[in-house]
TrEMBL record:
SUPFAM superfamilies documented for this protein: MetI-like
CDD domains, per the entry: TM_PBP2
InterPro entries assigned: MetI-like (IPR000515), MetI-like_sf (IPR035906), Phosphate_PstA (IPR005672), Phosphate_transprt_permease (IPR051408)
Coiled-coil ranges (or none): none
Compartmental location: Cell membrane
Protein name: Phosphate transport system permease protein PstA
Keyword Transmembrane: yes
Function of the protein: Part of the binding-protein-dependent transport system for phosphate; probably responsible for the translocation of the substrate across the membrane.
Domain annotation ABC transmembrane type-1: ranges: 138-346
Keywords, in A-Z order: Cell membrane, Membrane, Phosphate transport, Transmembrane, Transmembrane helix, Transport
NCBIfam families found in the cross-reference section: 3a0107s02c (TIGR00974)
Primary location recorded for the protein, binned into one broad class: membrane
Domain of life the protein comes from: Bacteria
Species: Protofrankia coriariae
Amino acid sequence: MSTSTATVAAAPGGLNLVGRQLPRAAFPAIGAGAVAVTVVLYVLAPITSRIQFVLIAGALYLIGQTVASIAVEGSRRATDRGVTTLVYLAFLLAVIPLVAVLASVISKGAQRVDVDFLTHSMRNIGARDAGGGIYHALIGTLEQIALASLFAVPFSLLVAIYLVEYGRGRISRTISFFVDVLTGLPSVIAGLFILAFYILALERKPTGFAGALALTILMIPVVVRSAEEMLKLVPNDLREASYALGVSRWRTIVKVVIPTALPGIITGVMLAVARVAGETAPLLLTIFGTDSINFNPFSGPQSALPLYIYSQAGQPQQVAIDRAWGAALTLIVLVMLLNAAARLVARLTRVR
């Protein structure tokens, strides 16, 4: 065999045939060349966006790597390297918006968040006053999410158990169809439904409870689908072993199936919580908002962090915009803390 196409390397366990490969120094050199060419284009051409700079540099790197790999390693390995690079570039493109959003919110919101901001409401705070906080909105968000989870999680889990363990025939297909419909339901439709049915038809007042009902509608399909998929992943051998021991079906579900799928179910619940935590449209129609602290979600209007952000960001004063950024940062941190707590619970309850 020619040494131009392959080399023979000795190894303790025998012989390893290793084809020609690009040296490790080639990849930093190709990257530096791609960045240098992009800088030249940045100077000569009307390129002003950083995102354009990253995209052009990534494309040039991919082209340079592919050409060098074909010349040294052949088309087969060049194709493999090209696809691998495309995967990394796609990951980078997906992460860039997330990092940009987080960096923007943290840089602008951290300047406003302090103890007073977290422990005071907007009561008696004028449009141009520098004070005020989010305590009333934070209380409202926590209570509404708790109520929505209390309503949605048990119901959704029962639906998922029925679809996986009992559901057969037309009824099961009908339930799955309506769950799919609810999955794509715009959030404002949920708010309109609660407004028309609960507030107007039943002549109820806007309350945090009404907002929780709207959030419940949005949570149900997410929890049902995630719990259904997790229950399907439980091996049938576990069920059959339980039946062989004479355990009834419902006790098998409670003692074997649900504990096995519990970590995934908790993750799905937190996905649903993360979705509804930032919803604004249904709350605009159901809780109406207030600047005062209301600990009772069943009486009177109540505020929420998404509604607070919406109202403050729409005002022309810089102090109001700063409060909106601070509330946005608090909402992100709140969702992250809830997710971290859910992961900890899932890890502690994992069946070994």
